[in-house]
Specification:
heterodimer, A: mainly alpha, Rna Polymerase Sigma Factor, Chain: A, Arc Repressor Mutant, subunit A, 2 domains, 8 helices, B: alpha+beta, Immunoglobulin-like, five-stranded antiparallel sheet, 5 helices, 8 strands
Chain lengths: ~170, ~200
């Protein structure tokens, strides 16, 4: 698919987008705490990836490469504003009259976890999301972040400790 | 901050069976995995249309003009065939060719790397769109010193060695390096070719 795009078939990039977009959007949303900011970051990252696709040195690592570009874009978004300024989608969505109690309870739980995640330092948040939300291996995470595996393990461990304290209310 | 039991960390890293954890650690394990599951909801939005619109605006610059793609038939006398083939090859391989005499705006770039035990070493760079297979280095006497030379346009070129088809290595002897532009602190070697 990468070769097809490099040969001039821009439409083939749509297949790459469809395959990786859901994970990238989820990753960016968890990093930035806002679906709108995540959409901007992922759109910018995918356009950048298209422009520099020839530099994706190993198409087998395309997934890690896309996460790396998106992670960098998220970091620069975070760098431009303080965490307190982040418009977290943290308020539970307004309950629709047809919402069941279970749905409402679940949205409150999601909000609780999102708040706990947002309180982590960005590199710990990134490590936890890549490991436990996106399901990457430590090797893939090293590819994405450029950090060493022991460093990443330490970040994930610290993130778990902080979340466990913050999530005492989570049933 | 409370340091959590290493057995719980191992279970969360997939290195220990969570069912074998003591009850209080099983409860903590369940709480963390439940939290991660709550964060896994698929996103409701898509940026595909927006990205493709931007790409389609840029795409014509990448695509060769249609007249270049249209097949053209020439009739040649057999005696001219070889001469035409040689001329076409000279034009096609002009920007990147091995072991040839450089033109006025070109120079010879020599690559040398010490990779004992390597089965193959090749050079990829900005001059060949980072495509593998265009410039393989040689180690005729099997002493681990791989070398090759190529004619390149004068100017700056970024490059990397690819060892055994999978390991990307910035030339340790390059002397100059530039960030690869993807923010992970990785660098490409930089080569300056003088005419």
């Amino acid at each position: 698919m990468v070769a097809q795009v490099l040969d001039g078939d821009a439409e083939a990039f749509g297949i790459i987008i469809r395959r990786y977009e859901p994970g990238l959007l989820r990753f960016a949303a968890r990093m930035l705490g806002s679906a709108d900011a995540a959409a901007d970051a992922v759109a910018e990252s995918l356009v950048r990836a298209y422009r520099h696709l020839a530099q994706c040195r190993d198409p087998e690592h395309l997934k890690s490469w896309l996460y790396r570009i998106t992670g960098n874009r998220c970091r620069s978004h975070i760098g431009r504003r303080h965490m307190s300024d982040i418009a977290l989608d943290d308020a539970p969505p307004l309950a629709d009259p047809v919402d069941t109690w279970a749905v409402l309870e679940r949205s409150e739980q999601v909000a609780l976890v999102e708040r706990a995640l947002a309180a982590l330092q960005p590199e710990k948040r990134e490590a936890f999301v890549l490991k436990h939300v996106e399901g990457l291996s430590y090797e893939e995470m090293a590819d994405v972040t450029g950090a060493r595996i022991p460093t990443l393990k330490m970040r994930v461990h610290r993130a778990r400790e902080a979340l466990l304290v913050a999530l005492k209310e989570l049933v | 901050m409370t340091v959590i039991d290493p057995r719980l960390q191992e279970a969360l890293d997939g290195e220990r069976d969570p069912a074998a954890l003591p009850a209080e650690l099983r409860e903590a394990y369940a709480r963390l995995t439940a939290a991660a599951a709550l964060l896994r909801d698929p996103p409701a939005t898509s940026v595909a249309d927006r990205v493709m619109a931007e790409i389609r605006r840029e795409a014509p610059a990448r695509r060769p003009a249609n007249w270049l793609l249209r097949p053209v038939t020439f009739r040649l006398r057999p005696v001219w065939t070889l001469a035409v083939a040689a001329a076409v090859a000279a034009v096609v391989f002009l920007p990147f060719r091995e072991s040839a005499t450089p033109g006025a705006e070109e120079g010879v770039a020599q690559f040398v790397g010490h990779f004992p035990g390597a089965r193959s070493v090749e050079v990829v760079g900005s001059f060949n769109d980072w495509q593998r297979g265009a410039l393989a280095l040689r180690d005729e006497d099997h002493d681990g010193i791989w070398h090759g030379a190529v004619v390149l346009p004068a100017g700056q070129h970024e490059y990397m060695f690819v060892v055994d088809g999978e390991r990307w290595v910035a030339d340790p002897l390059a002397g100059r390096y530039v960030d690869d532009g993807f923010g992970a602190g990785q660098q490409n070697a930089l080569l300056i070719v003088r005419p």
